[in-house]
Amino acid sequence: MDLAPSPAQERFRAELRDWLATAVTWGDGDRPPQFADLDDEVAFLRQWQRTLAGGGWVGVHWPSEYGGRGLGPIESFIVAEELARVRSPELVGRIGVNLVGPTLLAHGSDAQKQRWLPAILDAREIWCQLFSEPGAGSDLASLTTRALRDTDGGWVLDGAKVWTSYAQYADWGLCLARTSPDQPKTKGITAFAVDMRAPGVTVRPLVQMTGDREFNEVRLDEVRVPDDHRVGDVDAGWRVAGSTLAGERATNPRQLVIHLQAVDELVRLAAATGADADPRIRRRLAMSYADVRIFQLHTWRALSRLEHGERLGPEGSMVKLHWSEASKRLHALAMDVLGDAAPLWRGAAGNPGDGRWQRAWLYYQASSIWAGTNEIQRNVIGERVLGLPRERVPQRSGGGSLQ
Predict the structure, then answer these.
(1) Is 222 labeled as catalytic in the residue annotation?
(2) Which residues are registered as beta bridge partners of 352?
(3) To the nearest 10°, the Cα dihedral for 144, 218, 46, 27?
(4) What is the block-wise mean pLDDT of the chain (403 residues), using blocks of 10 residues?
(5) Predicted TM-score (pTM) of this structure
(6) Among the options 90, 248, 307, 315, which is catalytic?
(7) DSSP character for 309?
């Protein structure tokens, strides 16, 4: 594993830091503006992504003909790392930039790339991911959304999707639908680009524990999709989805930097509140520090493999499993450090951090669910990394197998 940056990579980081010093309008160490209304927040995030794209800092790993810089995974990691360092908010178009874009580059037609890729980078068009369903989350191959051939050669989609981030603002959705229900689970699925403003698309925001509403339920009722919006071959959607999901697990530089910052902040908070007088708290702080450094080493190892042209295999599940469990331990510790202030929310008197730790604790309860539940990650590690026998699963009442 080679951890030494090249001179070119060091110059790239310095260039980005100089640019951010001028572009970032919030103070050093401060956070971006907080918005009471999600519409205002999304408008701010669109403008921020447009600013970043104008500087050439969005999709640096994309080919230059589609607006990127044609750079490698290390440079992409540096951008995410430096943006997190200045507490930049996540890209409002991150699904398009990090997941849909690479998927289109791998499987889209030339016309699809020319049509969709340029508008992703500057957030002119926002994409969502229509994968998970009410009855098919981590077991994605059990999805039941149907796509039937229309008389004009196109497709008609019917079904429901859920946990769809920013669907209420999305222009397009990358959707998986079953085109051959008589085929085995992963064999009869096709990927489509769905116009989120098309007749039959209904979006219903879901209120989360944090009070936020970026997740949504999406209904597809006889939604017509032309055949030239199909991504990849018919019944080859599982292979297309593999390109999308590969980007979710093995490296997560933003979460790495956020958690490095969180450990430092929590140590300072423990000192300020006197919680560090408790030896049990001190031991847990030390463990959180070790956890995040292990996360860092896992990430560097994955980056080193990518930089040397190696594919990331199922080992990526170990990274996701480790950091999500470590995050939950860290934020549980934060609640103990806060002590009597832990139940308080924003604006409450005597509330250290003005509710940021409380919101983070709620938010990261879901870290063991998103990007594939940790139960699934453990199965992947056991079966595909350690070579253990496949888990035996019960038969469905209708006679079909769950796997």
Answers:
(1) no
(2) none
(3) -90
(4) 80 96 76 82 94 95 91 89 89 92 93 94 96 83 93 95 94 96 90 97 89 90 97 94 61 81 92 92 95 88 77 76 90 90 61 74 84 82 85 55 36
(5) 0.82
(6) 248
(7) T
